[in-house]
Design a protein that fits this description.
By secondary structure, the chain is mostly helical. The protein has a single domain, classed as Helix Hairpins, CATH 1.10.287.70. The chain is about 75% helix and about 5% strand. It has 7 helices and 2 strands.
Length: about 210
């Protein structure tokens, strides 16, 4: 494994911790822990890129310091704008990861890590979109357990919908919330189909070459 592979492995660990293990920790920790994890993700995701790595790393540092400033100053408007920049940043990372997979000459550990990271980052992007939608309209979704949701709830809804599971405890109410939910489900299936097609194509071409 080269150095980029280790960064991809670290990114996978960080995303898994954010998505799957933070829920086991005391909820009072979320307000501090989740922003820290997102901040670390900016830099780790940028370090693991083959193309535009230096540019994305600079952007990652800008995002990191911006988040610290926004949290410290507690500016509502700036927080909303920054959340939108988060979405754009991680969405672009997903696009670059898919591009790396498509251009890889063979299927190795790095490619598998990138494919997994791309899927999980896609879930994070949609979780941020859901969070932003709720910020603008608290009635866009109906969560049957609690009247108020947090980012962990949005992560849950994003990944459940991305996997087309849908427990029904977090329900889109407004038309635009339903449209976003459909987009999440369709993108989840398209991502899996595209990645599998790329990986199978690389295996097939390697078998023919041999």
């Amino acid at each position: 494994m080269n150095i980029k592979s280790y960064w991809s492995a670290l990114l996978l660990f960080e995303i898994l911790f954010l998505v799957f293990f933070v829920g086991f920790l005391p909820s009072s920790w979320n307000a501090i822990l989740i922003p820290i994890l997102y901040s670390v993700l900016y830099l780790t995701a940028a370090f693991g890129l083959e193309r535009y790595g230096k540019i994305m790393l600079r952007l990652g540092f800008v995002m990191l310091f911006t988040q610290l400033a926004v949290n410290w100053l507690n500016l509502t408007l700036a927080f909303t704008i920054f959340r939108g920049l988060n979405i754009i940043f991680f969405a672009f990372i997903v696009i670059l990861v898919i591009s790396q997979i498509a251009k890889a000459r063979e299927v190795n550990a790095r490619v598998i890590l990138d494919a997994t990271n791309g899927y999980l980052l896609l879930g994070l992007v949609f979780a941020l979109l859901v969070d932003m939608m709720i910020m603008f309209d608290s009635q866009a979704f109906n969560f049957t357990v609690n009247k108020e949701t947090n980012l962990q709830d949005n992560l849950y809804f994003s990944f459940v919908t991305l996997a087309t599971l849908g427990y029904g405890d977090f329900v889109p109410i407004k038309p635009y919330a339903k449209s976003l939910s459909m987009l999440i489900a369709v993108c989840g299936q398209l991502y899996v189909a595209i990645i599998i097609a790329l990986l199978v194509g690389k295996f097939s071409s390697r078998a023919v070459d041999n």
